[in-house]
Structure formats: structure tokens, C-alpha cells
């Protein structure tokens, strides 16, 4: 990790995190480059979600360094961290939409406080972003009027509003039927190609990993035990790694 490439947009070095006596992350190091989709794969409870929360500054690690856009976020004050977070998109498992707001209002929300964007530009951006996720006709609907897959799409559209350099996906296909899961996975790929965003995708969905991953890291009990492409890992000679794919 000390020799991570200069193009690394996010990086963690020797990350450790415990809750009481339970060691969740034992010594994780990884880097992701601009425009790359990195899938973090593993069973429930392996430390995937804790890792992503440390990466975006929602949780403080016990040890190790977290770098975003080449800057160490561990020693940043709140205003400095907010500047970095404007370059980061986050898609929560539930979509995390505001129930009382329409789709339009949910997408307007990240733009509040952006002094260099006017109302007309915001409206055009909302329409463009909704079109990119195939939901321009849902602009005036409430979240309660949308299916689970549609809410995920709106959540992704909201994450795109500030044109982030990296997007974190936390179990993007959880709770969706296989057809909708595949659609969301393909959409993640489309977003990568259209916007050249880097993405870290936390998942235990093999099909999502197959569709989206340029590279995968498999975590077992807080340790990265394997790294490679989907093809490489699916043909691993390690019985435990191979068990994920067969």
C-alpha cells in the first residue's frame, strides 16, 4: 500500500476497527483507481459495511490511514471533510430517500448551499440525471409510489447530482428480485462508463459482482484473503474462495 499508484482515488492502509472485544477489521489495505469498479465481497458480518463507513468518514478506525482524493481524512475537521464528501456519492441499501419529498425534491437536496448553481441549471441537471437512470417520468412522484428498484435508481440519481469522482454502493441489490438486481448492476456499469466514476461496491451478490467488477477483494473475518478479477477468483484453487462462486 505504501507504493499505491498516483492515480489512487481512495486508499486505506492497515485499517483496524474493533467494537469492544470483537475485532471487525483486523488489517485491511486496499486502493482504487479513477474509473475503476472495485467489488468488496464477503459473507454477512465479515466487516464490509464497517470498511465503507470508515472510508467515507462515518466511522473512525482504531488504527490505519484513510485517504480520499489523495488526502488523509482522519485528521480533517468537519468543514474540510465536507469539501471532500462533495466529491463522493453514496448509495445506501435502502436508497435512504426522504419520504415526504418528491423525486425532484430528493434530487434538489444535495444542491442546497451550492452557490454557483441556479434554479434553471438545477432543473436541467435533475432531468439529465433522472434520464441517465431511466426515471425521468417519476420526477413528481413520492418514494412511496415507487418500487424497490425504482427507489434504488432515484438514490443513485441523487448520488450523481454533485458529479462525484467516486461512488460507494452498500449492498445495491439487497431486497430486489433477480431481474431488478441485474438491471441495477448493469446501471452501475453504465454510470461508470458514462461518468468515468470510480466505485466501491459492497456486496455478497455473485451476479452483481460478475457484472460490475473490474477487480474484486474478498474479505473473511476482517482480513482481505483474496484479490483479482471475477474470472480469476471464480477459478481459485482455494476451496473457501471458490465456494462463493459455485
Tell me what the structure shows.
The chain has 246 residues and is an alpha/beta fold. It folds into two domains: 1-87 and 164-246, P-loop containing nucleotide triphosphate hydrolases (Rossmann fold), CATH 3.40.50.300; 89-158, no CATH class. Helices cover 34% and strands 26% of the residues. The strands form two sheets. It has a six-stranded mixed β-sheet with strand order 6-7-8-3-9-10, with helices on both faces. A four-stranded antiparallel β-sheet has the order 2-1-4-5, covered by helices on one side. A hairpin with a 2-residue loop joins strand 9 and strand 10. Helix 4 crosses helix 5 (148-160) and helix 6 (178-195) runs parallel beside helix 7. It is globular.
What's the short story on this structure?
This protein has 246 residues and is α/β, with parallel strands linked by helices. Helices cover 34% and strands 26% of the residues. The chain has 9 helices and 10 strands.
Spatial order of the strands forming the largest sheet: 6-7-8-3-9-10
* CATH H-level homologous superfamily name of the largest domain: P-loop containing nucleotide triphosphate hydrolases
CATH-defined topology of the largest domain:
Rossmann fold
- Low-confidence residue ranges: 1-5
Instruction: Give the helix/strand class.
Output: alpha/beta
Q: Rg from C-alpha positions?
A: 18 Å
Counted up, domains total 2
Biggest beta-sheet profile: 6 strands, mixed
H/E topology pattern: EEEHEEHEHHHEHEHEEHH
Kindly state the number of beta strands.
Answer: 10
Number of helices: 9
Shape estimate = globular
Amino acid at each position: 500500500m505504501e507504493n499505491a499508484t498516483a492515480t489512487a482515488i481512495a486508499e486505506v492502509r492497515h485499517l483496524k476497527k474493533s467494537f469492544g472485544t470483537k475485532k471487525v477489521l483486523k488489517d485491511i489495505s486496499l486502493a482504487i483507481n479513477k474509473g475503476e469498479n472495485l467489488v468488496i465481497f464477503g459473507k454477512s458480518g465479515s466487516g464490509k459495511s464497517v470498511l465503507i463507513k470508515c472510508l467515507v468518514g462515518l466511522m473512525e478506525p482504531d488504527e490505519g490511514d484513510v485517504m480520499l482524493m489523495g488526502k488523509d481524512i482522519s485528521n480533517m475537521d468537519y468543514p474540510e471533510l465536507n469539501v471532500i464528501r462533495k466529491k463522493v456519492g453514496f448509495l445506501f441499501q435502502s436508497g435512504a430517500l426522504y419520504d415526504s419529498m418528491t423525486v425532484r425534491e430528493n434530487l434538489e437536496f444535495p444542491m442546497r448551499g451550492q452557490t454557483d448553481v441556479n434554479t434553471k441549471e438545477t432543473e436541467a441537471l435533475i432531468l439529465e440525471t433522472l434520464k441517465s437512470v431511466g426515471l425521468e417520468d417519476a420526477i413528481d412522484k413520492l418514494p412511496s409510489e415507487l418500487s424497490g428498484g425504482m427507489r434504488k435508481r432515484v438514490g443513485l440519481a441523487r448520488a450523481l447530482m454533485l458529479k462525484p469522482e467516486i461512488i460507494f454502493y452498500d449492498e445495491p441489490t439487497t431486497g430486489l428480485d433477480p431481474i431488478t438486481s441485474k438491471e441495477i448492476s448493469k446501471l452501475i456499469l453504465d454510470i461508470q462508463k458514462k461518468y468515468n466514476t470510480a466505485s466501491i461496491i459492497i456486496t455478497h451478490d455473485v451476479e452483481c459482482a460478475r457484472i460490475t467488477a473490474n477487480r474484486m477483494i474478498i474479505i473473511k473475518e476482517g482480513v482481505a484473503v483474496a484479490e483479482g478479477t471475477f474470472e480469476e477468483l471464480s477459478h481459485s484453487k482455494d476451496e473457501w474462495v471458490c465456494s462463493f462462486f459455485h
